[in-house]
């Protein structure tokens, strides 16, 4: 996204003086809200806002064929749709590179942290449960990665598990929770003119030279994704990992609170 040069210079000058356009510190998130159960007909769902960025995730669970190399495991499929209503930069049509990357980053963190026990999704020979995570970007103002990971994790953590009886899927009645073994969150950092900031908003993302997303659970870094040509030194990476673990405590608390734990 192109922004006026005067705005770009303004953001760079602010960061050089230790300030940001919205008054936050370099390691501060915008206000975060998580609402689960947003889509009644989905097994699980969550709406997440980070500042003006708004993401909706729905989880749907159905039966299907196992992968040939994993006949005793269920399947996980993550997709992302960048709706035109969210930003003038998004267009209708086939999945964009940005949408594909968003889905892959969220999927990678969930898989690497083993949120789901894929073997527990085995039903019988030739039949397993498929778990679909659908990400819809409703409003874009930066940092889709963290918002989408929060929404996906919250959706899975609050999802109901259908039953399979006599060849039929039962989605109503006394259903238990989907078995979730872990909680994963992510922190996304932007590098602008040598300054590194957490949770870049839209104008900051438009001028950043480098981006780094770190996904972790309580104890382990599970995945990383770097974007753009800017680089991060080993020392900077160490600091960002420490920041990620510190910030993830609050992020996990927000997810827990959204479920009423």
The CATH class turns out to be Alpha Beta
| SS strand fraction | 25-35%
- Broad structural category: alpha+beta
Helical stretch count?
5
From the spread of the alpha carbons, the general shape counts as: elongated
What would you say the CATH architecture is?
Answer: 2-Layer Sandwich
Identify the CATH homologous superfamily: GHMP Kinase, N-terminal domain
What is the structure about, briefly put?
This protein is α+β, with helices and mostly antiparallel strands.
Please describe what this structure looks like:
The structure is a single chain. The strands form 4 sheets. Strands 1, 2, 3, 4, 5 and 6 form a 6-stranded mixed β-sheet that branches. β2 and β3 form a beta hairpin. The protein has a single domain, classed as GHMP Kinase, N-terminal domain (Ribosomal Protein S5, domain 2). With 261 residues, the protein is of the alpha+beta class. It is built from 5 helices and 14 strands.
Features:
261 residues; Ribosomal Protein S5, domain 2; 14 strands; single chain; alpha+beta; elongated; 32% strand
What's the topology here?
Layout: H1 5-16, E1 32-36, E2 44-50, E3 53-64, E4 75-82, H2 97-112, E5 122-124, E6 127-139, H3 144-157, E7 160-161, E8 163-165, E9 168-170, E10 176-177, E11 185-192, E12 195-198, H4 202-207, E13 210-216, E14 221-227, H5 234-259
Parallel strand pairs: 4-6
Antiparallel strand pairs: 1-2, 2-3, 3-6, 5-6, 7-10, 8-9, 11-12, 11-13, 13-14
